[in-house]
Amino acid sequence: MRSTPGAARLCILAASAGAALCALPALLPGAGTPWGTLALLAALYLVREVPARRSFFGDPAPVTAGAFFPLLLAAAFLLPPAAAVLVSLPGSLAGRIEQPPVAARRVWRAAQLALTVGAASWAYALLGGPASLGGSGSGAVLPYALLPACATALVFSAVLAALDGAILATAERVPPRHAWRGLHASVGPHLVHALAGLMMAVLWRSPYGPVSALVVLLPMYISCWVFAQYHRQHAAHRATIRALVQAVDIKDGYTRGHSERVGRASELIARELGMEERRMEALRFAGVLHDVGKLGVPTRVLRKEGPLTPEERRVIELHPEYGHEIVRGIGFLDEARAAILHHHERLDGSGYPYGLSGEAIPEFARVVAVADAFDAMTSTRSYRPGRPVPAAVAELERCAGSQFDPRMVRALVRALDRHGWSATTPVTSDEEAASRPPRQRAAPSGTPAAGPAGRPGRPR
């Protein structure tokens, strides 16, 4: 918790206190809490952690909790609000957390789901949902049972998205205008979850009892397996990208770590521009892979100690096209391929490989161009120290409109003001190059802000 920002700690503590207060009535003597139903639902939700730790069809893969939201909504339909709050706690607290701080994330997840299920159950009770569901041995009153169930799903979605936005704004300092942008996208899936949860609740209350309700779990487990396959495939994509980046770093040791930092800077710009998560990830991939075409450039040219001949310079300037060819068949990169091909184009049309200008340059390429130049200037090399961030920003602003898209430069400046740079992405020197004698030659006068990420006077 110590590494968590103060505002985020207050948010977590407030949510935890709220969840405890909501659950308190169920724990009081004489509350009439249906402990049997609660315990069975809580145990079923706890089982959701099994696919995250073990795999039935290969290596372990993470499974998202969203596949089990129908079970939480069934709890909101079947239990009083105070009891429904308790259902998600065992599974949330026992869940696997991949990123630090583990304790803070675990407590937040438990409090968030408890409040969300509690709010959904209260909404369901206020709308007369229990009456429309029918008692033991009686059928649900359809279609009237659908109305409170759908309304409950809307409350569930709104509370979950609101709490997600709150922690993004406080813990990750996401701008408020972006923190809650996912609300509309989650409504549809949660309505589907509500229908599955309602089906489970109806079967639970039927003469066949809870055993019949377990039939609904089968598609839920299939859904878990599908999600696991998706995440496994996503992990394979990341491994492919890491392998390509490592190959570039080995071949051109002078820019070691540069690709990862450009990917991070590109992601910061994308977040400021308000891009959706899918495009933001594709843009980060574009930043990480922007120099993959150097694999097609002869090593003797990349590592040449003296000035380049015009022919050697033309060879290096082919690396965007080489990179585009290398990733052409990688479907998940999507828009990233255009950025890899065009990240050396300039707004005034003097760039390469095709001399595009203005809006003809793809948006991703304009973002990566700014991120690439910024890291090139701020990174320490064996032959010169990195520029301070304010000096690099001033140079980007000087060249905005001629070399760089001013909108992308402004977005990077806002991101740096909000997040900083050295704190989020440490600048590292070249491990291999540091052991070599420092170069004495200086960059040619008038070198643009996109000063080379490698050696002075060379195209990046």
Helices and strands, with pairings:
Elements: H1 6-27, H2 35-46, H3 50-53, H4 69-78, H5 81-87, H6 89-94, H7 102-126, H8 129-133, H9 146-171, H10 176-179, H11 183-205, H12 210-213, H13 217-251, H14 258-273, H15 277-289, H16 299-302, H17 310-316, H18 319-327, H19 336-342, H20 363-378, H21 389-399, H22 406-419
Helix pairs in contact: 1-5, 1-7, 1-9, 2-4, 2-5, 4-5, 4-7, 4-11, 5-7, 7-9, 9-11, 14-15, 14-20, 14-22, 15-19, 18-19, 19-20, 20-21
Describe what you observe in this structure:
This protein is mostly helical and about 450 residues long. It folds into two domains: about 5-230, no CATH class; about 250-435, Hypothetical protein af1432 (Orthogonal Bundle), CATH 1.10.3210. It contains 22 helices and no strands. It has helices spanning about 5-25, 35-45, 50-55, 70-80, 80-85, 90-95, 100-125, 130-135, 145-170, 175-180, 185-205, 210-215, 215-250, 260-275, 275-290, 300, 310-315, 320-325, 335-340, 365-380, 390-400, 405-420. Helix 4 packs across helix 11 (about 185-205) and helix 19 packs across helix 20 (about 365-380). The protein starts with 5 loop residues before the first helix and ends in a 41-residue tail after the last helix.
